Amino acid sequence: MPRPPRTRIAALVLASLLAGCESKVTDENFAKVTDGMSYAQVEGLLGSGEDQTATGTGIGGAGLLTAETRSKRKVFVWKEGNKIITVVFDDGKVVEKMREGF
After folding, report:
1. Phi and psi (nearest 5°) for 79?
2. What CATH architecture is 24-100?
């Protein structure tokens, strides 16, 4: 069986790489993110996000410094160039979203 020319193989590899680089941080995908969506649903639109949840400490009932663990609020960020989408989840569901650089 004859081998395909190297240029054809190179073109196929390049096309598959470019398809994987499709921008997901777009106005269209930002608009698709709605309150109540799960992280998995948002990840399906935007890809894997970076967890930017602030962690902190508090003062316990005994007056001792303790880790703050009560909040179920998480903040995830998606970046591409100067475009940034920030999504806030409370108990695993979208409650707020913001965008910058569009």
Report:
1. -130, 140
2. 2-Layer Sandwich (3.30)
Inter-residue contact 72 to 88 (CB < 8 Å): no
Taking the alpha carbons at both ends of the chain, their separation in whole angstroms is: 51
Return the number of other C-beta atoms located less than 10 Å from residue 90's C-beta: 13
Q: Where are the domains of the chain?
A: 24-100
Give tens-digit pLDDT for 3-44.
657 776 766 555 555 555 678 999 999 999 999 999 999 999
Structure token digits, residue 48: 């894997």
Percent of the chain at pLDDT exceeding 90: 59
Q: Exposed (0-12), middle (13-18) or buried (19+): which is 88, by Cβ within 10 Å? A: middle
